[in-house]
Amino acid sequence: MTSPDDPIIFDDQPEAGHQFQRLLAIMSNLRNPDTGCPWDIEQDFGTIAPYTLEEAHEVADAIERAAWDELPAELGDLALQVVFHAQIAKDRGLFDVTDVLRAINNKMVHRHPHVFGTENRDKTAQQQSADWEKIKAAERATKGKRETPTGVLDDVALALPALTRALKLQKRAARVGFDWTDIGDVLAKISEESEELVEARAMLGADEIAEEYGDLLFVMVNLGRHLDLDPEACLRAANSKFTRRFAYIEDALRKRGKTPDQSDLEEMDALWNAAKAAGIK
């Protein structure tokens, strides 16, 4: 068992380095096969991965709500996920947290030659983003020579949220010239896909309807990309707006002695318009 006098685990020093070492020690103890926590011991990469995604979304949620008092704890939860994966890898003899930190440190230095190298720093943020993508492409090309060559889209992570993955796939394809040059062409494609969805709904089955709906979503992501918008962020904002306006409807109905299921669409739609008129966004 861990001693309550352990200077790493129980000594709450203010230095960031100490706190990081403390987290590593805590996770090492939790995964100890003889004295650790049974649940933590049983976990592997696959079982922890969903929690990693969940914690990343909770970080994004805190930022979306400007909940700055909650953000340290949410970022801590996300940091725990990194340490958890690193400890699982160490237990298997694959790598450890030092390898993780070395990899990201080296990557950040290599991808910022205008800060850590000799390149001119006098660039716009847009140019720096373009240069970042060029460096990533060069790294992929080098990796492909060392290992089995990969396609343009092969390393876009499957586990990303669908909107985010669609955006990354489109950006990757655009880098090799597979892209519309005029936003009008994107808008025309949206009209085309909308018509195909209407036709599928009228004439085809559920599978074809789902396919056409997916095509429409995909091209809507492309429109966002051409407008320099992040579709995931835009949809989160729309979700939040819907939540706030529906809360207005519920509150107004409550004052009338009703719940939504005791109302009807006409009444709730009128209250929705009232929420809009009241400036609820």
Automatic annotation (TrEMBL):
The keyword Hydrolase applies. It comes from the Bacteria. Signal peptide: none annotated. InterPro entries: MazG-like_dom (IPR004518), NTP-PPase_MazG-like_C (IPR048011), NTP-PPase_MazG-like_N (IPR048015), NTP_PyrPHydrolase_MazG (IPR011551), PRib-ATP_PPHydrolase-like (IPR021130). Residues 44-116 form the NTP pyrophosphohydrolase MazG-like domain. Its EC number is 3.6.1.9. It is an enzyme of class 3 (hydrolase). One of its GO terms (molecular function) is nucleoside triphosphate diphosphatase activity. It holds the Pfam family MazG. Keywords: Hydrolase. NCBIfam families: mazG, PRK09562.1. This is Nucleoside triphosphate pyrophosphohydrolase. It comes from Thioclava litoralis. The lineage of its organism: Bacteria, Pseudomonadati, Pseudomonadota, Alphaproteobacteria, Rhodobacterales. The gene is mazG.
